[in-house]
């Protein structure tokens, strides 16, 4: 059977291997162009709005590049809302440790902003997906061991469902993929809003998830 080439080019404006993996597993073969947006320079009134502002900024930067012409550009960004505060990637191990001690035994809401820009028409569709995350109660020793791996320094909220912190998450209410970094059901809705079926982006033989 001959592999099918999608009619539409898809560009992921993110360096996240988790987001790329989600798209590949779902049958897409996106190109990756990292936006380089300074996330600390942007603000918004609420965590949900901040996630969306960041996603829109990433998509806008990449969509303006000549190499993105004719493509659909996906921008995403995630923050964990806890006590009304938006928590992104911790700055250092000390902050990651304090973050986990404040999260254990509690629930937070993972907000992921999604923005799809059609570089052919200039149209944009964007929205934020929210998933409640219920954290377990890792011991101080477990937290120290996890922080020592370096993983929490590279992910929003200092945790991930597809890594070493998975045993410390009791459960979620909402879309699993959204917590990892991208909500495929929401992406489908945004594509539909722009006039595309998500199946137009499928390849018959998706690249394996690295």
Textual characterization of the structure:
The chain is of the alpha/beta class and 210 residues long. Helix content is 29%, strand content 24%. The protein has helices at 17-25, 47-63, 93-103, 140-148, 176-180, 184-193, and strands spanning 9-12, 31-32, 71-82, 85-87, 107-118, 124-135, 169-173. Helix 1 (17-25) links the parallel strand 1 and strand 2.
**What's the helix-strand series?**
EHEHEEHEEHEHH
Give the class from helix and strand content and strand pairing.
Answer: alpha/beta
Low-pLDDT regions = none
Shape: elongated
| Number of helices, counting only DSSP H or I runs of 4 residues or more | 6
Number of extended strands: 7
Strand content: 15-25%
- Please give the alpha-carbon distance between the first and last residues: 23 Å
Rg from Cα: 17 Å
Q: Characterize the main sheet.
A: 7 strands, mixed
- Mean pLDDT, rounded to whole units? 94
State the helicity in percent bands.
Answer: 25-40%
């Amino acid at each position: 059977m001959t592999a099918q080439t999608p009619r539409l080019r898809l560009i992921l404006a993110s360096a996240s291997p988790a987001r790329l993996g989600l798209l590949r597993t779902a049958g897409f073969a996106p190109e990756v162009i990292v936006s380089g947006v300074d996330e600390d320079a942007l603000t918004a009134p609420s965590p949900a709005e901040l996630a969306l502002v960041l996603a829109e900024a990433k998509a806008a930067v990449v969509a303006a590049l000549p190499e993105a012409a004719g493509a659909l550009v996906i921008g995403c960004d995630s923050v964990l809302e806890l006590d009304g505060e938006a928590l992104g990637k911790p700055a250092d191990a000390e902050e990651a440790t304090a973050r986990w001690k404040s999260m254990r035994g509690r629930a937070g809401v993972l907000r992921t902003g999604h923005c799809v820009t059609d570089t052919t028409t200039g149209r944009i569709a964007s929205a934020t997906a929210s998933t409640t995350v219920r954290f377990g109660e890792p011991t101080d020793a477990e937290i120290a061991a996890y922080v020592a791996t370096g993983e929490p320094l590279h992910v929003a909220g200092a945790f991930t469902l597809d890594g070493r912190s998975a045993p410390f998450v009791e459960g979620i209410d909402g879309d699993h993929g959204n917590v990892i970094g991208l909500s495929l059901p929401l992406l489908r809705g945004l594509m539909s809003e722009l006039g595309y079926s998500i199946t137009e982006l499928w390849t018959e033989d998706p690249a394996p998830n690295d």
